[in-house]
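DM from R.C. (forwarded with permission)

"hey, sorry to bug you on a friday — could you get me a structure for this? deadline for the figure draft is monday and I only need the backbone to look sensible"
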Amino acid sequence: MLETVSQPLPLALLALCIICFIIIAFLLYKLSKLSTSKSHKTSVKLRSLNQKKQTDVPSDRFEQKADEALRLRHTFQKFVPKQFVDHFAKHGATVLELGHAVEDDVAILFCDIRGFTGLSEKMSPQELMRFLNSYFLRMNDPIHLNSGFIDKFIGDAIMALFDHPDGGDEDKAQDALCAALDLRRALTIYNQHRQNSGYASIDMGIGIHFGPVVLGTVGSDDRMDTTVIGDSVNIAYRLEALAPIYQCDIVVSAQALQQAAQPERFTSRLLDWVKVKGRSNAIEIHEVIAHLPQEQQQLKQSNSALIKQGLGYRFKQNWVQAINCFEQAAKLSPEDHLPRLHILQCQQLAESALPENWDGTVQL
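My reply, with the result:
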């Protein structure tokens, strides 16, 4: 048997097997090393990806939160004007909280659509809302472009404030008067659009006053609103209601005109001395006519001296002289409603039992 093993051929096969075993062992070793290296690289890559994800997640979350905060701010400003918050900040308030109030002198403007009730009865609810939003959209710019802001929409009415943060009382009054003139121009353009679309034109009245108001927050813990209160707000609201009575576009108090201090820019004429509802003191009111065509302005100014003279006679209860002045004013401008209104008032006052301390004003 030993002799058989020691033969050349079996020895060669044995050597070949040993070489193959060594090669296989070497390949297995290399494969093991390669697998370990790939596993390590994969592990490192996964850790890197995980770290990147962990780094990206907070960044994405912060960006998302910032976008949400910006959207919330824009939404909030649609309900609470930014200028209202800035007004509080100007007085040292850092938080808009319930019950906070500040007092300031501002110009107040009211405007609303004439004959709105009759107009709304002809519309469906959807048509009415589309009409109001279309109207408000066009009335927004004249107010904001003149440093004012809309405090409230009250049905078809707009209440706007002019506080000119970087200016004085003169700037506030001028801003309100400029806004009134621009509102009338915007209405003219809007009516042209309505006529082109087959709709009837609309008209609006504007009232402006200047004086002290209280700006604050009212409500409860779960429902709060900003508000503006004071005698000046009531006066501005009542002046706007006088526009259809005197058949004029813009009624402004003497206080607002005096604060504006630019009579050549805001052409006007005296309307009357009145006592509005909720107020015992008389108010001198004027009609701003600067937005009217030059011909109409001249007609209204041509009889302004006679109207002022007639009002002076009315104060003295000299009804004959007062009516005479108003009749002359009517002849100068036959289409002017104001002289005829004063004639009617004098006739009614002459037949009334006036108190001894009557100050010449009419109660409206």
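R.C.: lifesaver. The beta strands are 101-113, 148-154, 157-162, 204-219, 224-229, 250-253, 268-275, 283-288, 362-363.
me: no worries. The first strand starts at residue 101 and ends at 113.
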